[in-house]
Each structure stands twice: as C-alpha cells, then as structure tokens.
Amino acid sequence: MESKQRNYQIDVLKFACAICVFFSHTLGFKEIEKGTSVHAYFDHLGWISVHIFFVISGFLMVKNVKSGGGGRNEGKKALRFAFGKLRRIAPSYMTALMMMLFMQYAYIYLSAKNVSIADQQVFSMQPFDLTIRAIPELLGMGEAGVMLYPYNAPMWYVSAMFLVMIPSSYLLIKNRDFFVYILSPVAAMLLFSCLFHQSEGEVFVSHTAWLGICSAGILRSACGIFFGVVGWILYEKLCSMPDSKRTKLAVTIAEILLNVVFFYTWIFRKSTKDTLFPVMLLIPAIVAVAFSRKSYAADLFRFSWMRYAGGISQAVFLNHYAAVCVIMAFFKGDGYWLCVSFTAVLTVFLCMANQLFVKYTKIILQNIFRKQPAAAASADRSRQGRDVIVYSEREEEPFNQNMGIKEKEKGTGG
C-alpha cells in the first residue's frame, strides 16, 4: 500500500470517465434514432465525463499557478503554464492523430465499401486534402472555429482546454483573489445556464455548435474550468478543518451522499437536461473532497496499482476513436457487443503502439542530441591534444638540437 500522503481517487475517477467516453463513441454500432432515451443515455455518458475532465483541469490550474507577485511578465507566465500542460500531452496527442490519419489513408487506398454515409464524407477525401484539413487539429486550434469536426473526435477537448487555459491562467496570475473568489463562481453559473438553455430535452448541446462568437466547446471548457476553481474554494475550506475523527466521519458521510446522488442520477435516471444539469452542480464538491483526503474513503484509493489509472485513462481517451472508426467501417452490423469487444481489443493495441512509439522516439532523439555535444566535446579534446603535442614537439626540438650541439662541442674539445 502506498504512503498516506498520496491517494489515487482522482486517477480512478478519470479512468471511469475515459471508459464512459469510450462507450459514448460506440453509439454508432447501434441503429438508434436521434432523440431516443438510449441515444441520450450513451451520449450523456461522454458529455458529463468531459465536463468532469474540465473541472479537474480547472482545480489543478489554481493549485499549480502562483500569483504574479510584482505585475511583470504575467502573459509570459500564463503562456508557459498553458504550453507546459500541452507539452506533456503533445507526444501522445500527435501520435494518436498520426495513427488516425494513417488509418484513413489506408482506408482510401483499400477503397472499402462497407461504410456509413457519415464515414464516406471523411474517407472519400483525397489524401492531400485530408492532410491539409488536419492542420488546425495538429496545432491544437480546432475549437478556435476552423474545422470543428476533428478527425480524432476526443481531440476537441485538448484544443478547448488549451484556448481557455491561456486567458484563465493570466487572470489568475494577475489578480488571484478576484479570479478565484469573484469571477470564477459567477462566470461558471452564467455559462452553465447558457449551456442548459442551448440543450433541448435529451439532446445536450454539441461542442461543434457555433454560438455566435465561439463554439459550444469553448463554453463547455470555460464552464468546467471555472467550476474547477469553485472546487478549489471548497477544497480550501475542507483543508482548514481540523484533522479529527469527527471531521473525517462528517466528510465521509457527505462524500457518500454526494456520490450516490450524482452517479445514481447520472446512470439510472432519465437522461434529460432537467435531471442531469442540476446534479452536475455537485461535481465541484465531489472533486474537492477527493483532493482533500479528509474522508475515510480516501484510504480505499492508496494501492500502488492504482497509480496506472491516470496514464491508462489518457491513453484510452486519445486512442479509442481510431479503433471505433475501423470497427465501424469493417464490422458494423455484426452485433453491438461484438463490435464493442473488437473496439476494446483494438484500443488496447493502439494504446500500446502509441506508448511504444513515443517512448522509443524519445530515446532515439535523446541519443541523437546527446551524441552531438559528446562529439563536439570529443573534437575539442582531440584538438586540444593535438595542440599540446605540437607545442611540446616545438619546445623539445631546440632543446634536442642544443643538446646535440653541446655533445658535439664536448666531443671536439676532448
């Protein structure tokens, strides 16, 4: 069991959300009309899971970003923070996108026939056009409004988070007190209400919807990140409470009630905006309690094997959609659970391929860049050595000549 200073409750939550996103994208294996309860159930698994991802990102932003402390270079600090988050995910992100494009190139080459109408709009394109249209997604700018339909569907989350994180982290650095305690709670509720009214019945607003000046994905990202800040406020309050058994018992009871109400409503109740949007307001509190470690439930998430949950969730999130597209193209109509099983197996393979490619690419690049300085240093040492040899030879030469002259004179005088 791991040290009590670390629990993996958030990692397990992210893993569960990644699985829900996976199942939400298998909806195409079923012939379901838009608007039915089954469609809404599957769709909302992914919709709320992505909202939880945004809330966690907002919480971690407040936890990791420090105030400017002098009013200088706040913009540069915000950019460094946002690019730092993007840089950590970039290798797996790029690899997943390249694998997705490669599969589409292969599909075009094979000229397969058993695809749906929606798939034909993508697969009927020429390879060059396909590559050009991938540029916004490659740069993480898909949610800026250019190409709102990414080739690797989950990638919109990365783009939306990055675009919202830049101004948010700037405001956080510039005026932490105003951003955390004034702006974020108010903005979270206003954006949440906007998303509520943009949704209709069982159909939640899609990230591809264009709402005047930005996409709905940007609003969803901002809403989730601001709610993550609200979660931080609750977390601060929890951390200020005394570490007593009474406190842990009260927090444990509250956590159980929050999770039971949320997950029961999310999974088992009718999937409408009137039911699910109100219960989503509990997510910041659930995240705050999980991070606080004030609950006895935290002891259940300290096993060492749970540390892999976070990495697995990221791998599944980034790579499963390529598997969905392949199975959709070649096995659609063979039964829902059979297609899901094939997709799960292919997703595992793609996750492993992605990780291996990233790992060995890093090793190769490190060796290349490591050899160059070593070769330069070796050349410098060799050059210095030659200089020493030449210098010593030049110094020794007159000495030897003088010695020879002296010996000769000595011999003559004798």
Write a structural description:
This protein is an all-alpha fold and 414 residues long. Helices cover 75% and strands 0% of the residues. It has helices at 9-24, 37-64, 74-110, 117-123, 127-133, 135-138, 155-174, 176-198, 216-239, 245-268, 273-280, 283-292, 308-331, 336-413. Helix 3 crosses helix 14 (336-413) and helix 7 runs antiparallel to helix 8. The longest helix is centred in the last third of the chain and has 78 residues, at 336-413. The protein is globular. The N and C termini lie far apart (93 Å).
**What's the gyration radius in Å?**
30 Å
Count of runs of 4 or more consecutive helical residues = 14
How many individual β-strands? 0
Which word captures the global form? globular
Q: Give the class from helix and strand content and strand pairing.
A: mainly alpha
- Portion of residues within helices: over 70%
Strand content of the residues, in percent? under 5%
Low-confidence parts: 32-37, 112-123, 388-414
Assembly type of the chains comes to: single chain
Major beta-sheet overview: none
Order of helices and strands: HHHHHHHHHHHHHH
Distance between the termini: 93 Å
- Overall average pLDDT: 80
